[in-house]
Amino acid sequence: ITKGDGAAKVAHAPLLPEDAPTLEGTEIKFTYPPTDPETRNEHIGKCFQGWLKDGLATGAVVPSPRVQVVEGGIGGLNEALNVLSKGVSGTKIVVSV
């Protein structure tokens, strides 16, 4: 999801069925990466190491659901499990390793 006044945009592959539910104010684009392995790797690299990385850093791209980072690497797993056991809603718990 991106910030701004325009419609939210969702990239999705493969195509959705015709009777799939829709959401007002949302534009869905269907994406297919290149089939050539070298070209596909370059394309995916640009997506994740370019557009997404820059968008997250500037705040132009906002993750959904909200991300909550638990520090401590592998040692933080118990804390992350404690957070989950207390109950979370609409939040992705992330432990960097």
Tags for this model:
single chain; 97 residues; alpha/beta; two-stranded parallel sheet; two-stranded parallel ribbon; 2 helices
How would you describe this structure to a colleague?
The protein is of the alpha/beta class and 97 residues long. A two-stranded parallel sheet has the order 1-2. The longest helix is centred in the middle third of the chain and has 22 residues. The chain is extended. The mean pLDDT is 82.
Radius of gyration (CA) equals 17 Å
Instruction: Indicate the low-confidence ranges by residue numbers.
Output: none
Derived structural class: alpha/beta
Order of strands across the main sheet: 1-2
Chain-averaged pLDDT: 82
In DSSP terms (H or I, runs of 4 or more residues), the helix count works out at 2
Topology pattern, helix = H, strand = E = EEHEHE
Broad shape = extended
**How would you classify the quaternary structure?**
single chain
Describe the biggest sheet? Answer: 2 strands, parallel
Task: Write the SSE topology.
Layout: E1 8-12, E2 26-30, H1 37-58, E3 66-70, H2 77-86, E4 91-95
Parallel strand pairs: 1-2, 3-4
